[in-house]
Amino acid sequence: SNIQTDIGLHLPSLDADMYEDPQGTIYDIAQMGYTLLEVGVYAAGKILNLPIARIRELADGAKLKIVSAHINKLYERVAEKPELTDTDEAATQGGNNIEAQSEEPKPDPNVEWWRKALDDVEAMGCKYVVMSRLPDYPTDDVITDYVGYFNLIGELAAERGIQFCFHPRKVDMQMGEDGKQSPFARIAAECDAEKVKFQIDTYEATDAGVNIEELLKQYAKRVPLLHIHDYIIVGESGKIDFEKIIAEGIRTGVKDILLEVSKYSLPPKVCIERSLLNAKNLPSIRY
Fold first, then answer.
1. Which residues of the chain have pLDDT under 70?
2. I need a surface site. Which of 138, 233, 235, 238 has the fewest CB within 10 A?
3. 76: left (phi over 0), alpha (psi -120 to 50) or beta
4. pTM for this entry
5. Backbone φ and ψ of 146, nearest 5°
6. What helix, strand, coil percent values describe the chain, rounded to 5?
């Protein structure tokens, strides 16, 4: 009853340090007491400009497990094949348009991109892949596109034994001026519940005016990841009741707890270490 849960760090919290001294930074993270990593800033097959094999090597050397990867790629609409005119159809039927007869559908660029990205996620040993972007001010049609897109990513991830999660931002959790459902609410209602789960960020949700405890109850078993994120150092703004949120998360199916710092009142490494110490002092961290 007194076993301490693993606590992870959202690695982009120390992105500047990672660019300057990746090996020393990873070592310092482990020395602070973190046991898990969530990587991010993925581009051109690299994490924070490091090859996938290198980031895995550094984590393994420090006895840190990479549990999750934040990867963002906005949906790329597949160009529809133009409809044949009467003249085209006649030429095709007459055998005069060989190109039209042999033309194959173009591959979906979203699928090709995500297959490569998920190969990299799998190579790092991740359990989760997380996307935290929607287009700004999405229309109803755009949200419909993203319901299908997230289901697709979730299906591709599941083929590799990886769970896809959507990380809503503040703007994604707010209702529009017309009183319609928030983009997050629509995605939660319309996406496949097994293919698409969620990573809830305490700062983003609080800033959006969301009651996080009620949200965790509403989406029980669909929130395996919790981002412990404050307005400053975790636990020091006084605006978020982390004890109640974490306790409710554990009751409703949260599997991994990851800390993030995005605003710094002290040097980043100091903020990260103090955030961890504050979290470890919460009774709910032990279960």
1. 1-5, 79-105, 177, 286-287
2. 238
3. beta
4. 0.89
5. -75, -25
6. 45, 15, 40
